[in-house]
Design a protein that fits this description.
Number of strands: 23
Shape: globular
Distance between the termini: 37 Å
Radius of gyration: 20 Å
Length: 432
């Protein structure tokens, strides 16, 4: 996902270096992207950035023909296959997020480890975090996915609070294709990811805190037509272990929305799928899916073109309306302003509505929250996410340290913050 910042360069020199890197890495596609970045000059350092004002009230783009793709807003904190809703999603983002805090978690004494943490977290072979999420439930707990690329070790860590400190509870080695995986999401009691082309892995998030072996449901995404584009070419639809982020949310019809972001040069393109229910006695059987739409975040569609490229994504359902929102997360040392020091990144959380336009699902950009943060504890492009606190219904945002500098002792660090807006009272009765 992300890369370490360069040396001490003046802003103009850094811009030239970044454009050269883009040209070298992405070829002709990078050339046009670099020119668009140069045209953007300076982004705000922090705060809420609505979409360009000409697109509608408060900078929010509204297409008259669009209608929400309805999500299930009735899910309780203990629902097995969906997440709790958040009231006033757009207002919570517009109100901005508090100062937050840098937290640490230790891996010195895991309750269960399939592989030694010092091996799993080594930065050798470009090993780094690929996703970090807050788990559902009243207790503070997290999951992190880490991998080293082709031929390396892919692992999933579960972190919980032991008294005043956060500690590694269980560390599982993942049998991901090529030893790599990108992105992780939470759905009810599960942590999910793409572990192989066209294959979902859904890991029970309760077992790790009992220090039990992993309980994993593997589901191959299938289509009624054998030559469906996403089955014949999953990488171009974000459905491989090299994706640019993936997330799921339950729909009001009992099925699921799967949003998969392409990786690499196409990390601004999101594909939306409707997926059948995955629970039941035939847990290992293929599950039917169909692509219902896609959306590409081009630099010209955003206030600042740098916010085009993201490699993590979360989904949030709004209470009452059932409106589903996507939150794409990214960061880069190219997003520098004059007063951002070397080692600092501008991390963004980009908010969009999931809508249906003329029977095709799409995304409707709302705005972007920006945060200046140091590489040593926050790299959103590698491991950033958004979540809903089940107790307060406040929306929270996270970003995690990219690479472990001391894999023998640690600790790991991350940053988290909650919306400044106290949402309206959450429902007191749940359908499930």
């Amino acid at each position: 996902m992300g890369r370490r910042p360069g040396g001490l360069l003046r802003p103009a020199a850094r811009s030239a270096v970044f454009e050269y890197r883009m040209l070298r890495h992405w070829g002709a596609r990078g050339a046009s992207f670099g020119l668009l970045l140069a045209a953007c000059n300076v982004c705000p350092e922090a705060g809420w950035l609505p979409r360009a004002p000409e697109h509608g009230r408060s900078g929010i783009a509204v297409r008259p023909e669009s209608v929400p793709l309805p999500g299930d807003a009735r899910c309780g904190p203990d629902a097995p296959d969906c997440n709790v809703c958040a009231p006033d999603v757009e207002a919570q983002f517009e109100a901005s997020f508090g100062q937050g805090a840098v937290q640490r978690w230790s891996f010195a004494a895991p309750g269960l480890a399939d592989v030694a943490p010092r091996r799993a977290y080594s930065a050798a072979a470009l090993g780094h975090t690929q996703g970090f999420v807050r788990l559902n439930g009243p207790a503070e707990a997290y999951a992190m996915v880490h991998s080293k690329g082709t031929g390396g070790i892919a692992s999933l860590s579960f972190i919980g609070r032991r008294g005043p400190t956060l500690e590694l509870e269980s560390l599982y080695r993942l049998e991901a294709a090529g030893g790599h995986t990108s992105g992780v999401f939470v759905l009810g009691r599960y942590v999910g990811l793409i572990e192989a082309p066209g294959q979902l892995a859904l890991i029970d998030a309760h077992a790790p805190f009992d220090h039990a072996p992993p309980s994993i449901v593997h589901r191959n995404l299938a289509h009624a037509s054998a030559d469906a584009p996403f089955t014949s070419n999953p990488r171009q639809h974000g459905l491989t272990d090299w994706s640019g982020g993936v997330a799921m949310a339950k729909l009001s019809n009992g099925k699921f929305l799967l949003l998969a972001n392409q990786g690499g040069a196409a990390a601004g393109r999101s594909h939306l799928f409707e997926v059948a229910a995955f629970q039941g006695p035939e847990a290992e059987a293929p599950v039917l899916a169909r692509e219902i739409g896609e959306w590409e975040f081009t630099p010209s569609s955003l206030m600042c073109g740098q916010h085009h490229h993201s490699e993590n994504v979360s989904l949030i359902t709004e209470c009452g309306t059932g409106q589903i929102y996507a939150v794409h997360v990214g960061s880069s040392d190219s997003f520098r302003t004059e007063d951002i020091e070397p080692g600092d990144y501008q991390t963004f959380w980009r908010l969009s509505r999931v809508v249906v336009v003329k029977q095709h699902a799409s995304l409707e950009p709302v705005g972007t929250y920006l945060r200046k943060a140091h590489y040593a504890y926050c790299h959103g492009r590698s491991a950033g996410s958004a979540f809903v606190d089940p107790e307060t219904r406040r929306i929270g945002i996270l970003c995690h340290e990219r690479a472990q500098q001391n894999p023998r002792r640690g600790p790991w660090r991350f940053w988290s913050a909650s919306s400044r807006l106290a949402p309206r009272a959450a429902p007191t009765a749940w359908a499930r």
